[in-house]
Amino acid sequence: MKETEKIVLSFDLDNTLINNRKGIVNSFNYALKKFNLPEMDKFKIEKLIGTPLDDMFAQLTSLNPSVLSSAFRDYYSIEGIYQSKLLPGVRKKLKELKKLNFSLGVITSKKQEMAVKILEYLKISDYFDYILGETEDRKVLGKLDPKLKDIFKNKYPNFKIIVIGDHPKDVMLSNNLNCPFIGVLTGNHSANELMKIKSNDVLIINSLKELTVDKISLLI
User: Fold this and answer.
1) pLDDT of amino acid 144
2) 145 dihedral zone (left: phi>0; alpha: psi -120 to 50; beta)
3) Tens of pLDDT along 173-203?
4) In terms of pLDDT, which residue wins out, 86 or 5?
5) With contact defined as beta carbons under 8 Å apart, do 103 and 159 qualify?
6) In CATH, what number does 7-19+85-217 get?
7) For the domain bounded by 21-83, which CATH number is listed?
8) Nearest 5°: phi and psi at 174?
9) For residue 30, what are the CA distances in angstroms to 20, 51, 75, 111?
10) Range from 46-55, 101-110, 134-143, 148-157 carrying the lowest mean pLDDT
11) Quick check: helix, strand or coil at residue 42?
12) What angle (nearest 5°) sits at the alpha carbon of residue 27, between those of residues 26 and 32?
């Protein structure tokens, strides 16, 4: 890989950089319980991680999903975010990539302010040049909002982008950005599920610990 190449590595958050299953499950069931709905099995909730909250709740009840999402965030902002932890090897890998002069960023389905809080709490926010999540301007389509393409075009002209994540939405994001994808199997989705959405310019690894310059160069 040429040293002069400009490369942005754009990471998903949940199940890619962090394990926050406990916080999400507890927040999800808090919201259900608040509206007298039956609690949900933790493995079913975990399978939905990476899906926008409103979409998660809309699958379960006819109640206005935004009301349930609001209850989720009430619990999550006070307790749930502090139940998160880094996945093994993440801090070391980010430090290594930063030293190699990659530009690093995060795109998540979480509210942007919440993502910033989590990354600050886990003391890795300084590694990232951007942290993009749900805002009022990017609420309906989330990771698939076409505005994200404009952000990269304006902020990183002539850069090569690679999306890294565990979820089908991350693969779709890479398709929308017309860029390569690196899938990590630290979430709830298999290599087959991810590769069904994208067959070219894709690499699957078991975890971020396996990410190397040589593997990145295969996609550039």
Assistant:
1) 86
2) beta
3) 999 999 999 999 999 899 999 999 987 899 9
4) 86
5) yes
6) 3.40.50.1000
7) 1.10.150.240
8) -65, -35
9) 15, 18, 7, 18
10) 134-143
11) helix
12) 95
CATH 3.40.50.1000: which residues of the chain? 7-19+85-217
How far apart CA 197 and CA 191 sit, in angstroms, is 10
Q: What is the pTM of this model?
A: 0.88
Among 58-72, 118-132, 137-151, the range with the most confident prediction by mean pLDDT is 118-132
DSSP 44-65: HHHHHTTS-HHHHHHTT-SS-H
**Token reading at 67:** 């009301």
Report how far apart, in Å, the C-alpha atoms of 121 and of each of 81, 124, 153, 195 are. Answer: 8, 8, 30, 33
**177: number of Cβ within 10 Å:** 21
Look-up of token digits 């886990």 = 122
Q: How far apart are CA 207 and CA 106, in angstroms?
A: 16
pLDDT at 153: 92
- Give residue-wise pLDDT tens across range 112-126: 999 999 999 999 999
Q: Is 33 helix (H, G, I), strand (E, B) or coil?
A: helix
CA-based angle 22:78:31, to the nearest 5?
65
Per the listing, tokens 């398709």 go with 175
